[in-house]
Amino acid sequence: MDDTRTPLPGDPDYPLHSELTIGDYFKQQVAAGPDHEFVVYPDRELRWTYCDLDVRTDELARGLLAIGMKPGDHLGVWARNIPDWLTFMYACAKAGIVMVTVNPVYKSHELDYVLKQSDMKALCVIDAYRDVDYLQIIRDLVPESLEQQRGFLTSEEYPCLKNLIYMGPEKHRGFYSVPELLLLGRHRPESDLEWARSQFDNNDVVMMQYTSGTTGFPKGVMLTHRNILNNGFYIGEGQKLRPDDRVCLPVPFFHCFGCVLGVMACLTHRCTMLIVEDFNAGLVLQALHKERGTAVYGVPTMFIAELNHPDFDTFDLSHMRTGIMAGSPCPPETMREVMERMNMTEITICYGLTETSPVFTQTSADDDIEHKCETVGRAHPPVDVRVIDPADGHICGVGEPGELCCRGYNVMKGYYKMPEATAEAIDADGYLHSGDLGMVDADGYYRVTGRIKDMIIRGGENIYPLEIEDFLLGHPGVLDAQVVGIPDEKYGEIVGAFIRVRPGHEDLTEDDVRQWAIPRIARYKVPKRVFIVDDFPMTPSMKIQKFKLREMAEELVAKGA
């Protein structure tokens, strides 16, 4: 009897776009178009072709091997979106070195944790970012760096750490500079890199990203070549990317939004990246205008800032076509403006999490505005997505709420040195549990209704913040809204809303919002407290920090505000 069958989505042997390592895949793309622009920094007037970056990353990879780095070693990159962030990313991938992405706004306490937990052998840094002095933090944490020969660091606190690298031409005691590593690499034989390539394959870890840690210590998510290369491909397919697309990336590289949805999707479709180092609405619009961008990425607040820029109408966006909006649900009016005023008729919505490389559902370029606002799209072809009841584990049917879970090539290898946390996230059947509540409709479109931990329980009634947020966006004076639970002696929790006001509605009050809501939704869902704010607290990856909003609400209520 023939028991062979066609592999189904989620199966380990489901055929993928590529089974190459990122380095080998990069070589293929270089051969297909060596002189095609790959990296453009409009503000720096820096332009690298695919061939330029290939040569630079080969040299850096050999330079890293020359200072004692080996396949499987961990190298941290602590920087904003500077050009050599990309050089290190591809050099590490070519040499089999695991790149550990470090949040640019970390301070000494967080860096100390990541240095120790990740077993980092090398750390690459810039001088500073915003209010964080990286060099001073390193001198304080690793005082031996001022006394010992570079490359031979011996630290009592960080026994794995052997190399410090400055991502620039300047010299700092105890640090290698990038020009020095490139020079070392130029004088090393090609055989060094050939040897390294023989030591790993596409199922080996290429990148570690640390989760936000809002529910405990940050966890190092181990992602493989196979994970992020293929995820980038399917993300690009969702946007119908082509080699003539010029994709503006103002989102941070240390996060999957930048390095997978952006950098990897552009690599797999041989696009050109237009990079803005730190989000600024004016600089994004200038880059799109000057470089004739066809796509731009961002979270809804970024698009709102661009649309409301005072000089918006002076920029030519007629060449725009697509892009990605992710991170949080988009207000319908904002989506409509993005599609009409920014000409992004084929914009897509992506959903996932770091542990899933990160995307597993996406709207298509051709979906209508309702699906782009109300859903997170359909499952990527190779992934098995299910809605599972968190209470008893049964698979939920159409329209039945549960936890969004997925199984497939995109699921992380695990949390570094945290087997118990890994087992908690990935069940015995291989499904990664997202922690998000949602449902699927008859056409296969998924909706996210909120985080399991964000759900508000008011006097026994379950309230989903996303429902209230979507409702509040229907008020003509509300530009954006975030809803959280506030502790209450009588009900356990009450509904609190933070609101950003549309221009021209600056006189909007808490009572105005409540009186508008009372006849329109069930009374228990009406926000008991409404706070008018200019901005929401955000992570560096531009996600709204609801735990900080909850803290703010508690403080304001306690003060009688």
Quick overview:
This protein is of the alpha/beta class and 561 residues long. It has 17 helices and 28 strands.
Query: Quick one: overall form?
Result: globular
What structural class is derived from the secondary structure elements?
alpha/beta
Measure the end-to-end span: 74 Å
Mean pLDDT: 93
**Proportion of β residues?**
15-25%
| Counted beta strands | 28
Helix content range: 25-40%
Q: Could you give a short account of the major beta sheet?
A: 9 strands, mixed
Which consecutive residue ranges, at least 5 long each, have pLDDT under 50? Answer: none
Number of helices: 17
Largest beta sheet: strand ordering: 2-1-13-12-14-15-16-17-18
